[in-house]
C-alpha cells in the first residue's frame, strides 16, 4: 500500500509540537522500547497481519477499542479490565457492550510477554494495534510515541459519562472532545473512523421509529436510506442485526464515509450532526468530493496522534500489566 511521503514527513513535526503541549506527552517517545523490547512494533504488526487476514472485519472494532479507551481516564488500557466483585468495569458499561477484539489484544500481549516479559504496557499494545488496524485496512500510517503505563481503575459509570454518544449533537460532542484537548477539527476528522466497522440496531434505531411527536423517522436521515435500514432493523429491540457504518466498504479505510454523510446517509445522529455546523459541514463536503483523500489521511493521522496522547500515564504512574484483563 502506498503511503504519501508528505504525510510521513509532516507527522514527526506534528508529534514534536504535540509532545511539547503537556508534561505527560513529553515522556512518550518514538523508540521508547529500543533497548528493552526493540522488536515491539514488528511483533505487533506480524500478529496483526494474521488477525486481520483471518478476520478483516476486526479492523473497525480494534480501532474502536482504542477510541473507547482514550475517552475514559485517557489511553491507559482501562477498557480492557474485567469487572470484579463489587466493581463494574468500563467494558461492561452500556455504550461498551458491543465492543469486540479483546481476545486479539490478549493474543498480541501474550506474544510480547514471551519476547519481552513485564515490559510493554497494554495501553501501548492497544495504541499500536489501532494504528496497524488502519494500515492493514488500506489507510494511512503514523509514528506512535510509546511509554504509556496501564491504569488500575476501570469504571462503567465513568465510561457512560465520558464516551461521545451516537445521539450527540455538535455542542455536546464539542464539549466532550474539548475535555480531552481535542478540537472541532479532530471531531470531524476522527468521525471518519466510521468508515470501518458495523453497528448494532439499538445504536441507531431511534432514528427510524417514533423519532419525535412530529416525525416517525429522523428528518435529517435520507428517507430512502431510512427505508432500507428498516428492512434490516425491524425494531428498536433488535440486538442481533448489524449494519455497515460505511455501506459497501466497511472493511476498507477510505473517504466514502464522508460521501454518505454528505448525502444524509450517516448511520448515527452524531454523523448527521456534522452537517449542522458550518466548519464540520465544509470539511465533510470537501472530503466527500474524493479529491482530497491525501489530506484526510494526513489529518486523521495527526488527530490519532493527539488522541493517543490523551491522559497518558507515564514514569512511575500505573503499572505494566502482565495480562491486559486484570491488574497485577
Q: How does the overall form come out from the CA principal axes? A: globular
Note the main sheet.
Answer: 2 strands, antiparallel
Structural class call reads mainly alpha
Cα gyration radius (Å): 19 Å
Mean model confidence by pLDDT = 90
Which structural traits does this protein have?
328 residues; globular; 2 strands; mainly alpha; 14 helices
Description:
It is a single chain. With 328 residues, the chain is mostly helical. It is 45% helix and 2% strand. The chain is built from 14 helices and 2 strands, in the order αααααααααβαβαααα. The chain has a two-stranded antiparallel sheet. Helix 3 packs antiparallel against helix 5 and helix 3 packs across helix 6. The longest helix is centred in the last third of the chain and has 16 residues. 46% of the residues are buried. The N terminus is likely disordered.
Task: Lay out the secondary structure.
Elements: H1 5-19, H2 23-26, H3 40-54, H4 59-70, H5 102-115, H6 122-136, H7 156-162, H8 170-178, H9 184-190, E1 198-200, H10 223-232, E2 242-244, H11 256-262, H12 269-272, H13 278-288, H14 293-308
Antiparallel strand pairs: 1-2
Helix pairs in contact: 1-14, 3-5, 3-6, 4-6, 9-13, 9-14, 11-13
Structure at a glance:
By secondary structure, this protein is mainly α. The chain has 14 helices and two strands; from the N terminus they run αααααααααβαβαααα. The protein is 45% helix and 2% strand.
